[in-house]
Amino acid sequence: MEVTGHMPAQDAPRTRSASIWDVARVAGVSQQTVSRVINGKARVSEATRARVLQVIAELGYRPNRLAQALAGGPVRSVTVLTSDTALYGAAATLRGMEEAARTAGFSVGISVLERDSGQADIALRLNRPGEAAMVIAFDDAGVRALRALPADVPVAAAVERQPDDGPDDPWQVWLDDRAAAAHATRYLLGLGHRTVHYVAIPSSTSALPQRTQGWHDALHAAGRPVPEPLPGGWSPRSGYLAVRSLLADRSVTAVLCGNDDLALGVMRAAREAGRDIPGDLSVVGFDDSPPSAYLNPSLTTVRLDFEGLGRACFGLLHRRLDPQNAPAVPAWSEPELIVRESSGPAPA
Amino acid sequence: MEVTGHMPAQDAPRTRSASIWDVARVAGVSQQTVSRVINGKARVSEATRARVLQVIAELGYRPNRLAQALAGGPVRSVTVLTSDTALYGAAATLRGMEEAARTAGFSVGISVLERDSGQADIALRLNRPGEAAMVIAFDDAGVRALRALPADVPVAAAVERQPDDGPDDPWQVWLDDRAAAAHATRYLLGLGHRTVHYVAIPSSTSALPQRTQGWHDALHAAGRPVPEPLPGGWSPRSGYLAVRSLLADRSVTAVLCGNDDLALGVMRAAREAGRDIPGDLSVVGFDDSPPSAYLNPSLTTVRLDFEGLGRACFGLLHRRLDPQNAPAVPAWSEPELIVRESSGPAPA
DNA sequence: GACTCGGATGTTATCGATAACTCTTCTCTC
DNA sequence: GAGAGAAGAGTTATCGATAACATCCGAGTC
What integer pLDDT is reported at residue A2 of this predicted model? Predict the structure, then answer.
């Protein structure tokens, strides 16, 4: 049997909670007045407001969000579209979004994008046409979802790439991982490494990803040889496979990885190849995921403020939905290189 | 043809997507008939059904979930209440729940419980009174939320503890980590360790947690000394702090940890204490979180099927909501000890 | 042929809210 | 003192669906 709401009042359990009508009846006013009190939009006399608020408290009344939304009330719910939440970046961004949204009184929906999810069903993931959405578009699936969203959906997105081509989309936030990658690369060069190899995460665009670009620029600017980037996936295993054959070459002394998981795989490959870290080989990751400080050796990595990014993304959406009242978009931290044990001077 | 009553506005903006009325008008039937076709509950002639379906396709009509829910339609949305999703167990369970729910056509809401969130506001996290919920109750906050939910909320929960006291709640799923902890303990004893120390995760109940219990039982049954469990938190740091002073004692040769993060901290403490793993000290974790296979040394741990648990939890909820049509609750895997490099024979 | 029966549909009420409009009162000008 | 404004509160329409009830009509029964 399905759960229905159309129960006759007689034998309905008393559990059904108070509606705006109940409040109105008890308070001796019209339900519209109750609505006014709730929303604080229109003017209500102080006496009436107090009475209504008291009745609301007594009855434990709480507005039905569905009804509010249906009636065209202010948007108070967001759906987050994200791909694989097993990845640290996406998961942390989601946490930031959820926290900010919840704090602002929004309810948060979540819908995970399959790698092969078609564009057609994206809109179906929203509870109603025009519902607000946030997209975590760090990978291809996310970017496609963002593109596939109908134009009438108010959306804000956390994206991987700094859009330096095409018109700026004011409803996007990103981390400057291009500068961060360049910084990490210069750090390694500064330790005396002749060049730096790079294991890349999958790109979300056809263009050169920002991290790859930053790494490339730094090498180029320093006049160092630029090796071919090694294509990796998201997992430790893919990092392991990407560098396994490379590490036999002792001239490879520094590896920058597109994320910490790749670095984990690279460190294992190094162990198996008999390379000492950081004596023989320096490894630097990206993300500063929770385990990285406790790895053996602990991982030098670029800390990325995904949670802050997520909060900012919601802040942006909030302003888009309600420019008048939404608070300023919170700032998030710049990427920061965290130096730990896995990196050191180039071998003599 | 004349339609009375709920006639949609003539001059509605074109941007608004099709409603059931639009479909009805184009198909030349009443909106109730469209509703019948959508829900397939009542009988509709084959010709009419075909025509309506065609119009639905043409107009790209999709039912508004909010309106359906408000009108008392079948429940098609769930809110997941969970505490800190930064923890692997909760995050993986959430993934399983989301996947299963999405596959079944449910929309998924998520609300993260703060450590100190009061009981009063739990019901406020649901979009309407009586909305379905799932609770990830692996810790104290989750358990309290589960208790605080009003009785009229259809809920299923993933809990930490096997309820062997009190009446069985048929709407709960759990992993048998008691048996798993016992198994892991026996494994270590079998390697020749005199006893096994245990670093505990925080308890979700006042009673002895299942993992602690299983560890205790195994030691007791083998007639070994039972050391005091070491209270840990959830983080690597807490594991590090919990055992730092202990490891000076060379008679401590085996440590079982309540989760992999604790194990990570324990391994670092061991490194600093100059203890070799697994030569001097065996470390076993719990969860089989993604990095554990790539740690140095790779971590022996108990694999827990959190995703399967999450899927099962949704399956249970689905059956609760719709006993007639919901598919069978999917099975999930038993805990399994994954032996890797971090454990070995007791030192001579 | 009147009557019942049940399948196929249409009509109306309802869910719980908001928006737009209306209706009273007062107060303030001139 | 009459009309303009504005505050405070009520009425009605509407959002997009489902449930309950009403209606229509052809087939079978006696």
Answer: 34
